[in-house]
Amino acid sequence: MEAKIRWGGDAKFVGDSESGHTITMDGPPDHGGKNQGPRPMEMLLLGLGGCTSFDVMSILQKSRQKVTDCTAEISAERADEVPAVFTKIKINFIVKGDNLKESLVQRAVSLSAEKYCSASIMLEKGGVEITHSYEIHD
After folding, report:
1. Peptide bond into 40 cis (omega under 30)
2. What are phi and psi of 137, to 5 degrees?
3. Which residue spans of the chain are classified as CATH 2.20.25?
4. CA 49 to chain CA centroid, nearest Å
5. Percent of residues, the chain, with pLDDT higher than 70
6. Is the pTM of this model over 0.85?
7. Residue 72 contacts by C-beta under 8 Å, 6 or more apart in sequence?
8. Sign of the Cα pseudo-torsion (118, 116, 69, 106, in order)
9. CB 133: neighbour CB atoms within 10 A?
10. For 128, what's the count of Cα atoms within 13 Å in the CB-facing half-sphere?
11. Residue 55 burial by Cβ neighbours in a 10 Å radius (0-12, 13-18, 19+)
12. Do 112 and 55 touch, CB atoms closer than 8 A?
């Protein structure tokens, strides 16, 4: 996997992915940016959320669950000192659907956390405490 990051002036950077997608990242005004895109650390959280959501939905679909919506709400804490790494991340899935089986939702979240989500497992190996929870709404 490869990516290219180009400086766009001030605190703005443009990332090009190997799959042909482009994303703009920018810093806040107090750091010379113009708020034209997410911060790089926000991108890490978005990547984590996308990775684990992909797993959860794939597992639920293979389990023949009739999911109508799935949202991962993520909150994170960072160290006070530089480097301001993530220290704790909470991921809460809100899964909506028809007659969803709680055991299968719990299984999907657990499998993502423990076996499939490369981003989550990598961050945990780096010392980040990650907790997963879920809510089911019919």
Report:
1. no
2. -125, 125
3. 1-38
4. 2
5. 100
6. yes
7. 49, 52, 53, 56, 91, 92, 93, 94
8. negative
9. 12
10. 26
11. buried
12. yes
The pLDDT tens digits for 46-67 are 999 999 999 999 999 999 999 9
31 φ/ψ angles, rounded to the nearest 5 degrees: -120, 20
Domain with CATH 3.30.300.20 in the chain: 40-137
Domain 40-137 class, CATH top level: alpha beta
**Residue numbers in the chain where pLDDT is lower than 50:** none
Pick the CATH number of 1-38 from 2.30.130, 2.20.25, 2.60.40, 3.10.620: 2.20.25
SS (H, E, C) the chain: CCEEEEECCCCEEEEEECCCCEEEEECCHHHCCCCCCCCHHHHHHHHHHHHHHHHHHHHHHHCCCEEEEEEEEEEEEECCCCCCCEEEEEEEEEEEEECCCHHHHHHHHHHHHHHHCHHHHHHHHCCCEEEEEEEEEC
Encoding tokens for residue 66?
Answer: 């009739």
